[in-house]
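Input record (one chain):
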Amino acid sequence: MRLYDTYTRSVVELPAAPGPIRMYVCGPTVYARAHIGNARPFIVGMWFRSWLRATGYEAELVHNITDINDKIYEAAPGKSAELAVRATEWYLEDTGDFGLGLPDHLPKATESVDAIVHFIEELIASDHAYAIEGDVYFRVASFPEYGRLSRQRPDQVEEQEPNALKEDGRDFALWKANKPETEDTWWDSPWGRGRPGWHIECSAMAEEIYGPAFEIHGGGLDLVFPHHENEVAQSRALGHPFAAIWTHNGMLRFTGEKMSKSLGNVTTMREAIDEWGAETLLVFFLAASWRKPIDYSDDTVAQARARLETLRNAFTLPAAEHDEGRWETFAAALEDDFDTPAALAVLHEWASAGQLELLRRGLEVFGLGGIAVRAEAPPEVVELARRRAEARSARDFESSDRLRDELAALGWVMRDRADGYDLVQEQS
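The corresponding structure, as predicted from the sequence alone:
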């Protein structure tokens, strides 16, 4: 399998199966209900794992929870711990509704503070970090390769966290002294009470689970700088190889702009699922390359819903003779930088050709196996559908609506076509 690597700006080969392929995909900072754009790294990570396992790999996925962060303190002064717990529950509930299962590990920053402190102590001991009045900063000048991931020259990097006491404006915080007036959670450390900086959290959590080297680090494209650049610096400054491949999914845009709370154009994951359904949203994400931007609008999601219905309706039609040779086209699309738009096109080809077993297998890779249910309608349902078709033909819409409701009460939906209708059993 080949994936685009941000670090080398090229498509690279993964190690041969069975691997292992260990993946760390940055998760949410939990201070509000996550927006639908936050679903993309989770979904892409789960799809990567699903396909790798389907093709014989030993694949493992870590998806962290950032529950120590400035944004949490700002959102709930004095009650940040309560908000972080509640927002974590929201995130797990909302991503769980996609039906993709859970990552193998969901580490929290609050559970990794001891490992973070030890990591910082190593950086200070090796002269890559220094303490000032309870804060600790990474010494960017000590790592000559700084900027390689994001393609920035070290002398052009702007100041990340202003502090007149820093040696260099580019230096970033590893540990922050506690501010009692705004922060209700802190931990003891050799530098006094405080809390970790954002970037060191992920380096420590990844290495606590995988050790100093693993195969893939992923996340949204907006994390390349400064977050992932700083992770590279922290870990490799200690001689740790860290991630071999860096994968960054494209951003979700609302009418052409990145979706963000600051722009006020946020649709939460919960709102999107409630309005469109999880399966429609999965098809929506399938329709775009994982590393390209994707536009979220009523029109684009409605198109995904129509595609979903086309795939679902295939299972109401007779199956053609199975042709296993067609699977290779689907596999080739996903092996080539996980090209989901090409794979989706193959799924539609199979739907048109009645290759229902292949279609079922392909849908299962993306958590859509639930639509691949064929059921023969019982005689009473067939009779109700026949009578409703007659009522519609006679323009007796009152009777048509009543018969539709009777069908729904029995768990069936009648989908009209130009040349007839389909009966589809609703899924619980």
